[in-house]
Design brief:
By secondary structure, this protein is α/β, with parallel strands linked by helices. The chain has helices spanning 10-21, 43-53, 80-89, 106-109, 123-132, 152-159, 198-205, 213-221, 260-276, 291-307, 323-335, and strands spanning 4-6, 26-28, 35-39, 62-64, 94-99, 114-118, 136-137, 165-167, 179-182, 189-192, 210-211, 252-257, 281-284, 312-316, 340-342.
């Protein structure tokens, strides 16, 4: 398939919208990561998104809308808390999981009776949804398992020849995917952390929110014995959900966690040792509290190191006491297959 390369000009957005209306697939920029969009109400188009990504069909998609009132096409009731979150955070990187209307196809929601909805802030995304005149279901525009695309060239690397068109816009402002919060239970529950933190959500609704167990479970698994040091790098995850390859670079990857100075030293030591045996080593090390920059750069750095053909990536852990740090660590741990060394 020949993939059309488009810009964010009015004419090109119109072309892309026509493709969506006719059941085709278009990758487009958002402020989080690039999305791979299809008409959310077109089951066949949505099925093709799964095919293009090589994604398991039980993993539901986020439905993107262009104005808050369009959530009415997807759900019957907005609770006061949902309204509060919409008022505070839309447009922006917060996805709300709500009860779905029967009209929303099962394919879009992976067979669930809930639907994930977001109003993005990126102008190109809003223009595309408006021109298409339908909500757009869109997962990230990468091959399933590889790092999310935050730049047009990343989308081209994964999706050229597999989809109808790619809108090439700016690099994504945020760089990690949206916060996903499930609003269907008694307590709002964060299913995926992002730059809109649990504290910010709590402040908006005046009520405690919780993290889904799978998120906290994952960090428990990596509480390794500090005395064990790098020997624990062979650590294997215990829970099956953590086995999925996600955001994985082609290189092997190891996270080094601990006191800042020691982390730097250990990364240098491991780099030297691995280079001595002929391996090409890349390092990802952000400033200690530069959480927003880390979110912005993390996936791009993974992809750049892969392009350079490194064998091993050594990454310095960020503090997960900070909400954004926690969100970046969620991706870093998955990328490294939960391999972590404490120093
Ligand atoms: P991605 O499409 O790659 O941005 O991923 C979308 C994320 O939203 C995935 O982690 C999905 O599991 C999650 N998601 C989408 N719809 C739902 C839903 N109805 N209930 C729970 N999680 C959802
Ligand atoms: Mg994704």
């Amino acid at each position: 398939m020949k993939t059309l390369h488009l810009t964010t000009s009015k004419e090109d957005i119109e072309k892309a919208a026509k493709i969506i209306r006719e059941g085709g697939l278009v990758a487009f920029p958002t402020e989080t990561v690039y999305g791979l969009g299809a008409n959310a109400f077109d089951e066949e188009a949505v099925a093709n998104v799964y095919k293009a990504k090589g994604r398991p069909s039980d993993n539901p998609m986020i439905v993107h809308i262009a104005r808050a009132s369009d959530i009415g096409q997807l759900t019957r009731m907005l609770s006061p808390e949902i309204v509060e979150l919409i008022d505070n955070f839309w447009p922006g990187p917060l996805t709300l999981v709500v009860k779905k209307k029967p009209e929303v196809p099962d394919r879009t929601t992976g067979g669930l009776d809930t639907v994930a909805v977001r109003l993005p802030e990126s102008q190109a995304a809003i223009d595309l949804i408006n021109a298409a005149c339908c909500p757009i279901a869109a997962p990230s525009a990468n091959l399933s398992g590889s790092p999310s695309p935050t730049r047009a060239k990343d989308v081209i690397a994964d999706m050229d020849g597999r989809i109808d068109a790619i809108i090439q816009g700016d690099d994504c402002r945020v760089g990690i995917e949206s916060t996903v919060v499930d609003m269907t239970g008694d307590v709002p529950t964060i299913l995926r952390p992002g730059i809109i933190t649990a504290e910010a959500i709590e402040a908006a609704i005046g009520k405690e929110v919780k993290y889904d167990e799978s998120l906290t479970e994952a960090s428990k698994h990596v509480q390794l014995d500090p005395a064990a040091g790098v020997a624990e790098a062979d650590f294997q995850p215990k829970s099956p959900g953590m086995k999925y390859k996600h955001y994985a670079p082609k290189a092997d990857m190891l996270i080094v966690e601990g006191n800042r100075e020691k982390v730097k030293q250990e990364i240098e030591r491991l780099k030297g040792m691995n280079e001595q045996i002929g391996n090409k080593v890349g390092v990802i090390l952000f400033e200690e509290r530069a959480f927003i920059e880390a979110a912005h750069d993390f996936f791009a750095q993974l992809r750049d190191l892969d392009s350079e053909g490194v064998d091993l990536i050594l990454a310095g852990a960020l503090s997960d006491k900070d909400g954004v740090g926690f969100a970046v660590m969620n991706r870093m741990l998955k990328s490294a297959g939960y391999k972590i060394a404490r120093v």
